[in-house]
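INFO  loader      accepted 1 record
INFO  loader      residues=247
INFO  predictor   begin
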Amino acid sequence: MSFTAVLRSEWIKARSLPVPAGLLLLMLAATIGFSLIGAATLGKQNAGKPDFDPLLISFYGINFGQLAAICFGAVCAAAQFRHNGTRIWFAAVPRRGLVYAATLVVIGGVTLLAGLVAAVACFLGGQPLLGEHRVPLDDSTAWRAMAGCAVYLALMALFAAGLATLARNATAAMGILVPIVLLLSFTLGDVSHHGGFTEFLPDRAGRQALVHAPTGTLGPWSGLAVTALWAGAAVWAGWEGLRRRDA
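INFO  predictor   done
INFO  writer      dumping C-alpha cells
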C-alpha cells in the first residue's frame, strides 16, 4: 500500500473520532479566547512597565491551548492501540513505518493549520486592545510570532504523539507532559524573564518565538529548534517501541 493511501486512511480515522475533533476545537477556543482576555486585562494593567512584552501578551492563551494540543496528539496516536487495533492496521499495512509516519503527518499537519488560524486571530484580535503599545502588523516580529505559535503547537502535539506511541496509551503521555507544562507556565512565570536550564525545556524554549525581544540564551528560532529536538526524540522513541514490540 502506498504512503498516500495510508495517509488518507489516517486522515479519515482522525476526523471520524469525536474526541480528537473536540480537542482541536478546544485548542482553538482556548488559545484565542484566553489571548483576547489576557490582552484586554493583563495587557492594560501592565502596559508601559519595563518588563511588559506587547507581543507575548497577544499569545497568552497558548498557555491553555497547548494543553489541548498535547491531548490531541496523544489521543490520535494512541487510538490505534485500543482494542488491539494494531493487529488490524498492521495486517492491512505490514510496514509499520508507513502507518507511524502517516499518523505523525496528520497530527502535525492538522495542528499546524489550526495553530496558524489561532495565531492570526490572537494577534489581530489582541493587538488593537493594547492601544499605543501594540505591535504593528508590518513588524517582522509579528509574522515570526504567528508562524512560531503554529509551529510550537504542532511540535507539542508531535511530542505527545511520540510518547503515546511509546507507552501505547494516551493517558500516560498526557500524564507526563501536562503537569510539566502546567508547572512551567504557572509556577516559573513569564518565559522572557528566566534563564538557566529551564530555557532548554520544551515548552519554554519553543515559546521564545513569541517574545518580542528575547534576552536569554535562546533566540526565537533556536528555541523552536530545541523544542523540535525534544519532539524528535519522543517520535524516535515511539518508533523504536513500535518497531520492536509485537502488535
